[in-house]
Amino acid sequence: MSVTQFTEQELKDLEEKTTIPRFLFLPLGVIGLVCLAIYWPSQAIGWQIFWTLFTSYCLFCWTSCFHECSHHTLSGSKNASIWLGRVLGTAMFVPYTVYRESHIRHHAYLNKPSDWELWPYSDPNTSLRFRRIFIWFDLGMGLFMAPYIYGRIFWHKDSPLTDPKVRRTIRYEYAVMVLFWGSVLGLCAFYGVLWDLARVWFLPHYLAGIYQNTRKFTEHLGMSSYDPMLGTRTVVGSNLITKLCTYFNFDIFVHGPHHRHPRIAHNLLLQKMDDYQEKNPEIKYPVFTTYWGAIIDMAPAFLFKPGVGMNAGAPAPAKEKKQIDNFVQDVAKEVIADDDLVTKPVD
Question: What does pTM read for this prediction?
């Protein structure tokens, strides 16, 4: 498995940022699971709905934590990112290394046919009819579709993962996942509590999958540009709720700067967005002050023409400056062809 290589300044930024308050969703999620398990404070349907929705949002925040782990930007410790990522990946049915390898290429080849993470929306060989049908399964069955979509980078005959060490690591992670969940299901069946497992874990997880894929669609669907600042929707919250949601999801909603600079500390993304707007005043970036505004902008693509890149009307991308297998400092400078760029760099 590759390990993200940071510059001295990047590592200093990661070590200096304060991350611990953002982890509040981890213990809160556990509290929600416990309350669901023991029917606290009662079995009243209102309380069960509350705890299910509360826990599902906490699990959604866990997916954002998983995302930070894949970048190795959770903290100054790469080992902490790797091992927490493996725990979270096992819980979410997506091996950590599968997610990381897919996500590396998602940053480098955004909206292109080689963007495995956005398949089938990035694949010009998929028909519009197929994508119109598939997207409803992707939205409503995210719990199952995410393991399938991410797993393609390992199982597909044209997989770019050719390093035997990487493939061996992924096989081990799949084996641990099967062993863990096989044991959980077996024990729950033996003690007759499979319904409780579905109620306490799978239902909140199912809802979290819907939230997560809604986020994926909102940030990407309908975006044609290969320039990361223009090929993603960015949300810079103007109200307390949006700001809190952004905070507890590690600022991932500030998506354009994150896509261009995948090694930057998440607490610096807002400033980076301001820098780009100041440096390029003539460019109208797809920036929204609420998440609802971004969702409304995405809705026509979702309903009528689900796609990105070539499937959203872009010409075929130019050849990249180089092929990569790790996160880089600035994908525009190091990977994307100049013909596919619009935004000036910000040093």
Answer: 0.95
